[in-house]
Structures are given as C-alpha cells and as structure tokens.
Specification:
2 copies of one chain form a homodimer.
Chain A: H1 28-36, H2 43-55, H3 60-73, H4 77-89, E1 104-108, H5 117-126, E2 131-135, H6 145-149, H7 161-170, E3 173-177, H8 184-195, H9 202-215, E4 220-227, H10 236-252, E5 256-263, E6 271-272, H11 274-285, H12 291-308, H13 314-320, H14 323-333, E7 347-352, E8 357-362, H15 364-376, E9 390-393, E10 400-401, E11 406-412, H16 418-425, E12 429-432, E13 442-446
Helix pairs in contact in A: 1-3, 2-4, 2-8, 4-9, 4-10, 5-12, 5-14, 9-10, 15-16
C-alpha cells in the first residue's frame, strides 16, 4: 500500500505543520477477520465501516458478520470511543451552548411502569436546568416515553431543530423524537442488530445509547440502568458493566455521566400503560402519586442538578408545585392540551386476590407482558399502540390483602385480548404469611 | 405448540410404530442467539436453516450472523453430522451401488503444484476401483483440478449423471465438475462465507468438503490434508483437527474415510501452473516424473485401494504403464485429445541462482503467489485462467546449485505480469553451506 501523492500548493498559508497524509485503504474482509480473530479495530477502520454502512456501500451480510464478531469478541475503550464518535459523526450534533442554562438529561434502559421522564424533565427544568430529552422509538415493542406522551390529545413528538432550541429556551425542557439526523448510523445498525440476534451486546447497546445522547448536545447525563426481571438486562453484573461502559464513553466524550443501577423486579408505581402512566405522572407533579415514583424522580433530579452544577433541592421544588406549570408549558409547546381528558379504556376488569396474605412478590415481567398483550405495546414494530390499555395496581410488594380484595384493574378496549393478558397477570403475585422487606430502589451509583 | 393432527388411515399396513409427529416451529433469531450463546443447535433447526437459506427464504444477513457465531463457537459432532446431512439433502446423492467395482475417491485441501489427482485417478482405476472424482471450483482463485484438466484441448468438465455413470462403468475413473445438484446448499453457503470472512472455520470447511464427497456417492475416501506455508491451513494442529473432523463426519455417514497430513512447505514436483502440471502428470503416468509426485501418488493410491478392499500394488501397476491408457480413455471420454499439444506460453524467462550453495528452503508460498500473478490463478472469481502460465522448478530443496545456474523457468503470455511475479519468485529460495535433511512428505495418518 502506498500513500497517495500529495502536492502542497505553493501559496502563502499560515505556518502549520502539514499532517502526514496517510489514509490507509480499508477492506471489509480485513475488518471482519480482524475482529473475528480478536484484534482491536483501528479508528480509521471503524470510521470507514460506520460511514460505509450508513451510506449503503457495505452490504448487510458483511455488517452482520462484523456485528456478531463484535458481539462475541467485544470492543475495547478506544474502539468504543471511535465507534460512538463515528455514529455521532454520521449525523448532526446539536449545539446547546447557545442556551443560558446548564444542560442535563436522563436516559433509562426502561422497565415496567417507568414513566419517570414525564415528571422528571419539568422538575429539573423548574430547578434551573435545560433538559433536552430526545428519544428514539427504542426497542419499538414496548411503549416508550414518546408513546406515553402521544396519549396526550394533540401532542406531537417530531420537531425541527429550531423548535427544539426555542422550546428549551422558553420552557426549559423538551421530550421529543430524535430526528433522522441524530446518529442515523445507529438507526441502521439497530434495525440490523434486531434482525440478526445481536441486540444484547454491552458495547453495542452502550454506543447506541450514548451516540444519541451525546449528539443531542447535553453537557451532563444521568443514566438509570434497570436491573431485574422487568429490565432489558436482568443480571446485575451485566447491568453494572453496561453502566460502567456508558459512563466511560460519556467521560471520554466530555459529557459528565453518572449512572444509577435501580431495581426493576417489580413495577414502578401503580400505572402500567401509556395514558395511565401519564395520569400518574401528572399526579406526581401535583404533589401526589406513588412513593416509589416520587422517590426515584427526586433522586434522579438531584443527580441531574448536581451534574449540571445547580444548587437546587428538587424535593422542595416538587413539593412547591413549581414543576406542574412547566409540564403544562411543555405539553402546550408541542400542540398538546394538558387539560384535555386522556383516552379511557372501553372496559375495566378487576382481578381479585385469590387468598389473604402479604404480597411478598409482585413480578414486573408478567405485569409487563400482560400490559403488552392488552395493547400497551406492539406485536410488530409497525403496530399501533392502544393508548388507554394497561393495568393499575392496587396491591404492591409489602401490602397486606384479604381474599377477594382487588389486586389490579385491567384496562382494555378489545375483550378478545383479556384471556391472553390474564394468563400472565395472574402469575405476577406471590403471597406469604409474613411480609418481606422491600429493598431500596437504588442499588448502586457509578460515576 | 401443538402437533398437527395425524389420522392413520384404516388400511392393512405392516405393523410399525407410527412415530410421534412433532415438527417444532423454528425461528431464525432463536437459532442465531442459541449458537451465539454457545448452545448446540438441534437437528431440526439445522435442517430448517440449510433448507431455508438454500431456497432463499432466509436473508443473507441472518445467515451471515449465524455463520460468524458458528465460526467462533463451533459445531459439535451431532451438529456437524446434521449440518453435513442437510447440505447433502439440499441436492441429489449419486447412487454408485450399480457399479460392479468398489468405489473410492481422494480429496486434497490443495497446495502449490498439487496435481496428484491427475495420475492418481487413472492409477487407482487401473488397480480395479471406480474413482468418481467430482470437484467444485473450490476457492476459485487458484487453479484447481478442473482448471488443470481444462488446459487439455477439447476437454469438458460438465457432465450429466448418466454420462458420469457410463464413464465410471466403462473407464473406471472420472474427474468432472460437481453439478448444480450436488450439495447446492454448499455453493450458496460458500459464496456467503467468502464474502463475510468466515472461510477458515474447521467445522464449516469439513462439512463443505464432506457434503460434496458423500453426495458424489463414493463408498470410501482418502483425504490429503496439506500442512505448511503453501497450504490453505498452514498450522499442523489445525490441519489435524480438520482431518479428524472430516474422518469423523465420514465415519458417521458410513463412508470409510482415512486422512493423511502431508507436507506443503515446498511445491510438489517441478511444475506449477495448469498445462505445465498436466504435462508433469502425464510423465508420471508414463513412468517418469518427479520422485515426490510419484511417491505421493503411490502412497495415496495404496490408501484408496486398501479402503476399497482391493489387493493391488499401485507401485507395480504404475511401473507397468497400465494407468496411462486409463488416463487417455478418461480424457477422450470427456471430449479431450490426449495426444494434442498442450497450450504453450508465449514467453519463457529463466531465473538464475544469485549464489552457489545448497537449496535449504524452497518456500511454496512465494512460488504459489508468483504463479498466480503470472495468470495460473484468478484475481477475481470470474477471471479466466491463463492455461500455459506458471513456473517450472529446476532446483528443489536438497539440491546443490552453482551461481548463475537456472533455478526456474517462468512461463507467461503477458510480459507486463513479469515484475509482480518475480517479486515473489525471487524470495522463494534460501541457500546454505550445508544441505538440510528433506523431511518425509507424509506427516501423519488419521483414521
């Protein structure tokens, strides 16, 4: 291989060292074989691959082979940084330095009943930060933050860059769709990974999440990495590795990043389902709502404020009611009516306790699958969500119930969906003669 | 999942147990994830994949992901058997039981100057066996057995099943192209593996070779697994594992299989290049030719005769000249003229010894690359071969040379190819003050 001949034109240029031009030729087979055989890929190879795949110059089968090799042989820190950078460079990176407030955002790996973004974003804005929460549709099957927000009549997720900046300036918080220009490489790679069985890879998940968060322009970031039966990553050690990997990527990219590992064995709050969760979020903003949702919201808000360098007390701000008008402005700015009634289910069925006893376990997983089967999630990526469908829990872990007492309400539009959902919901509760201690929500903090 | 309802018709059938019908549904993601996570795939999953991919029902990117997972996590014996069986079942399996002679064949993993099949097939036929050597175009870049034979004017590689059977009956030996119906799954999988960096996988190579050899219908098989710088698999341990894997597949398929690991550090014989190798093969059949080629031909012939249960002495048969007329009948039966002059190069350049001394090393690899650059091999799969191009060695390992003595002749049509070829050819020889012992060709026998 020889370097292309470079002629430096003889004109008056400022005195800088002309870097040695050496763009090595890259061959996809060499890249695949290198990773297959455990070699660390070089930055220019990663850049070449991400760019080529995004442009459609590298065929799916070659990318698939490389992704499986990455899945099995991993990426080291330098590779991860290059991979994430290349995904950011595939699109635009928002410049939020024009704002007069410090920026901070939160990302959650998702869990059953996780509506925390909804009260959190306006709360942190009320504390003085700008919160630019741009979300992808993510895994696509379960209702994500955008799906929850879309149950608000009139609300729209898709905004242009100017609208995003205006809203951040005027309202201080936004929840919106990450547009096509935010890490487009991730979109292509994610769709491929989903089709070829390489989703659950720590470096690929970490670079996917972090490329979008870094591209959205936030200066600081708090990650809520869920652990347990209702989490994408049930195992604590793997969740910790994911958290550490993302914190490392953030640090190397100059985005101050903190991660909390939080418990996702049992649903968060009482509401599971899109419109039901919006209602719960509004009650939290109004000073009510389930204790666990309030606690996690305030805990994450404290981390975000600390990361952003704000001397605020989110617990006091929430109690003061100051976050609710920010929420209403957020909703209105995106065409939504915060006073309009939310969609309601055509049918509400109650499930009763089959025996008396203490609820010793309320498993997030069957509740999540049950709600998903009611229509709160999608069977296929293109399916619509049923906004009103879901579950409201009346008994949670640590509660005492009498036989025949309501355990949960099932909200649904189509009665045909009931049996398949009940099959799972009925398995969610375990009862015992003694109460078990309810462990704290936050397992570990990684910074 | 429920089994389809089976109605056993009420007619008089011989008393057999009706097997429980249970065809489980297979999902490609489950298959990929299973292999990715180190699970042994089930036979029905492998059958489903090979069939689906051959029919075009499974997209390349999913197959690519699975193949990389197989590359990195391997296949156990049961998986290998299922994989090979499924590739055989993707096409037709020849039935050679109609022949009145025992069948035996040889397969070589290929090396520089390896023209052994050409004298071997007629020799073993002259010993009383039927030799059904159906070859793929193989790796496609270097001249294979079919390319060598095609330098004979008029000779054609493609025959129908009836022609193959007729020739085996009448001549006793055939070298022909494995048709489209012989393990077509292998053709598709091989092309994909070539594009996605998963060629060098022992289970995938083994099942690829063995599926074609088992499908061609031979009852016994001798494998020549090359080891060394000029071999596809330079490392002895890996070559041994490949040999053991293939012997195991053969045994489980009822094809008695023996493997020899043979040395491929230095070219076999003096001729490297298609027409040049045919000429050398003919001289071996006529009682001459280089010792190493004669020795390996006779050694492999002995193994094939023993495997076929023939009490013959191939050394004596070769010396008697009885194999040459079989060769001539083989060539004629496929339209070739064994008396016609072979293609000759437009140009012959000689390379001379730069010093006097003993040839302590003649490296197969630069000789192979040099010949390939002269046109004996292809740069791209579709490129034509230059039949007359190649190299004839005048000095081999263990020979004494004086300075200025001819080392080799370079045969070529296009003088523009000379510099790039010489660059490698000049590196092939090492000289020393003392001769080094030349190690035996056969390293190990695996049965």
């Amino acid at each position: 291989m020889t370097a292309p001949e470079v002629t430096v034109p003889e004109v008056n240029v400022p005195e800088v060292n002309v870097p040695e031009v050496n763009v090595p030729e890259v061959n996809m087979i060499d890249v695949i074989v290198g990773k297959r055989d455990g070699r660390a890929l070089r930055t220019h190879e990663i850049e070449w691959f991400i760019d080529g795949y995004t442009r459609g110059a590298i065929p799916d089968e070659q990318a698939a082979s490389l992704l499986m090799a990455v899945f099995l042989n991993g990426l080291d820190d330098a590779e991860l940084t290059a991979w994430t950078d290349a995904m950011i460079t595939s699109g635009d990176r928002l410049d939020l330095s024009v704002l007069d407030r410090p920026t901070t955002d939160k990302h959650s790996t998702g869990g059953v009943g996780d509506k925390i973004s909804l009260p959190l974003c306006p709360l942190v804005a009320a504390c003085g930060a700008a919160v630019p929460q741009l979300s992808g549709r993510g895994l696509g099957y379960f209702g994500g933050t955008l799906d929850k927000m879309e149950s608000i009549p009139g609300w729209r997720a898709n905004l242009g860059t100017t609208e995003i900046l205006d809203q951040l300036r005027e309202v201080g918080a936004i929840i919106a769709a990450a547009g096509d220009r935010l890490a487009p490489a991730d979109r292509r790679l994610y769709a491929l990974r989903d089709a070829i069985g390489t989703v659950e890879s720590i470096p690929l998940i970490a670079s996917s999440i972090m490329s979008k968060k870094i591209a959205e322009g936030t200066a600081t970031l708090v990650l809520d990495v869920k652990v347990g039966s209702g989490a994408f990553m049930p195992d604590r050690d793997r969740a910790r590795r994911l958290a550490e990997t993302m914190v490392g990527i953030g640090a190397r990219a100059g985005v101050r990043t903190v991660a909390l590992l939080t418990r996702m064995d049992t649903p968060l709050g009482a509401a599971v389902g899109n419109a039901l969760e919006v209602a719960e979020a509004v009650s939290v903003l109004g000073g009510g709502g389930p204790t666990d949702v309030v606690d996690l919201t305030v805990t994450l808000a404290r981390e975000m404020c600390a990361a952003a360098g704000l001397d605020a007390d989110p617990g006091a701000v929430l109690a003061s009611g100051a976050a609710l008008p920010v929420w209403e402005r957020m909703v209105r700015a995106q065409g939504g009516d915060p006073t309009a009634p939310l969609p309601r289910a055509a049918l509400i069925e109650t499930m009763y306790a089959p025996q008396r006893g203490w609820v010793t376990r309320l498993d997030a997983r069957p509740i999540g699958i049950g709600a998903w089967r009611l229509g709160a999630g999608r069977a296929h990526r293109q399916d619509p969500i049923v906004p009103a469908a879901g579950v409201v829990l009346h008994a949670k872990e640590g509660d005492w119930v009498e036989q025949g007492q309501p355990l949960l309400d099932i909200h649904l539009d189509d009665p045909a969906r009931l049996p398949a959902a009940r099959e799972f919901l009925e398995r969610a509760y375990t009862f015992g003669p003694e109460p078990l201690p309810v462990p704290p929500l936050v397992i570990e903090r990684i910074a």
